[in-house]
Design brief:
Layout: E1 4-7, H1 17-29, H2 37-41, H3 48-58, H4 65-83, H5 91-98, E2 104-109, H6 113-122, E3 131-134, H7 146-155, E4 162-166, H8 169-177, E5 181-185, E6 200-202, H9 210-220, E7 226-229, E8 233-236, H10 242-250, H11 253-256, H12 266-284, E9 288-293, E10 299-310, E11 313-322, H13 331-346, E12 351-357, H14 361-369, E13 373-380, E14 383-391
Parallel strand pairs: 1-2, 1-4, 2-3, 4-5, 5-6
Antiparallel strand pairs: 7-8, 8-9, 9-10, 10-11, 12-14, 13-14
Helix pairs in contact: 1-4, 3-4
Length: 396
């Protein structure tokens, strides 16, 4: 279970990397060196101590690391007074929203503790974080996992109950070494960072929610994500284990009449679904989900949305199927309503269509009951069909 979210500070909460690099460049001129941005950016995610120890060795400086760090900090202090650090867009809103959920928040940064505390105060975030951890207080800096393990210990949670948001290769490496789920944030001001080790990479925080982060966490642990819960149903991603139950539903002649692309062999269905979990659930955040009875936990069908080429146009298509024992009891209407709500409100999909065989009067009635409108008669996958359409009412 996700119990804690750990934020790196520099490059995730504040856009500090350009100013830190500028401070190092100005400071090193006092020691007769011209540092490139590329040299500075390779140390993003590390402590100043680690960078300076390497720098002194690389350039064979006669000065001690303490002298260099002190000079850099003096320059940085002056630059901070002149320029200040801007907050990364939307991250403050995200932190405030996350605080409304039953999880703990911490900043785990390579920066000195006084800078972490000052940043939280400047952004009015002190009341939202449970702990601060500075890499300057630890023996090993990122990419070692020490800083995140320390944060988890202070929060009273295990590493596998944590999710980390990082913008650097070193930070991502440290988070994964700690056994934690990691969201890589691509910040163009953090240099050309390799974030491929993260569980997912994002380019901004404007559409990031607790639900999104929880789903990333669940997928990283191989657990299916719940999409919706209704009066009688749970709609969630299907695991490979669910395919055995789904396969038995596929074998019902009434179900097969209007459903394409069902294999006759269970092992083929299992292999298809393994690829489906990786390529569809993980990539798009949607697909066909399992429909489960809340009362019994039984898998009774599937529903969802998928990418399709229909009538010469790429569309998001709605579909469902149910065990024949559950026909005629309103389950189809219940699950398709939930899918549309999730697609419109959570995924912000602008338009959804349904392709219904002309002989499938049950599904046509369901489509009309959920607000879909008849659009056209089409010939699709060897069938004479009707195309139904619904537009997202929340998008102009």
């Amino acid at each position: 279970m996700l119990k804690a979210i750990l934020f790196d500070m520099d490059g995730v909460i504040i856009d500090s990397e350009p100013l830190h690099c500028k401070a190092f460049q100005k400071a090193m001129k006092q020691f007769g060196l011209d540092l490139s941005k590329e040299y500075c950016y390779q140390f993003i995610g590390n402590t100043d101590r680690y960078m300076v120890d390497v720098l002194v060795k690389d350039f064979n400086l006669p000065n001690t690391s303490e002298e260099v760090i002190r000079t850099k900090q003096e320059v940085l202090n002056q630059l901070e007074l002149e320029e200040r650090y801007p907050a990364v867009p939307y991250v403050v809103d995200l932190i405030k929203n996350l605080s409304k959920h039953p999880i703990k928040l911490a900043i785990a940064s390579s920066s000195p503790m006084e800078q972490i505390e000052r940043t939280a105060k400047d952004l009015s975030l002190t009341s939202y974080f449970h702990e601060y951890v500075s890499g300057m207080d630890l023996k090993h800096s990122k990419p070692a996992p020490d800083i995140f393990l320390k944060a988890a210990s202070l929060l009273g949670v295990s590493p596998d109950e944590c999710l980390v948001i990082e913008d650097s290769f070193n930070g991502v490496t440290a988070a994964k070494a700690a056994g934690m789920t990691c969201v890589g944030y691509y910040n163009e001001n953090s240099g050309n960072q390799d974030l491929s080790g993260a569980d997912i990479i994002i380019e901004g925080f404007d559409e990031i929610t607790f639900s999104f982060l929880k789903n990333v966490y669940l997928r990283s642990h191989g657990e299916p994500v719940t999409i919706a819960t209704t009066a009688r149903l749970i709609i969630r991603e299907m695991s490979v284990e669910d395919i055995v139950s789904m396969y038995h539903i596929y074998q019902q002649p009434e179900v097969r009449e209007f459903v394409d692309d069902i294999d006759d062999y269970l092992q083929e269905e299992i292999e298809k679904h393994k690829a489906y979990i990786k390529n569809v659930y993980n990539f798009y955040g949607y697909g066909f989900w399992g429909i489960f009875s809340r009362e019994t936990g039984e898998l009774i069908g599937r529903c969802g949305i998928q990418n399709s080429e229909i009538n010469g146009r790429f569309e998001i298509e709605l579909g469902y199927l149910l065990n024949i024992d559950h026909w005629g009891y309103g389950y189809a209407l219940e699950c398709t309503k939930s899918v549309l709500e999730y697609a419109f409100y959570e995924l912000q999909i602008p338009r959804i269509v349904a392709v219904i065989d002309k002989k499938n009067s049950r599904s046509a009635k369901v489509a009309m009951h959920v607000g879909m409108k008849f659009d056209a008669e089409i010939y699709h996958k060897g069938r004479n069909c009707d195309l139904y359409v619904i537009e997202n009412p929340n998008i102009e």
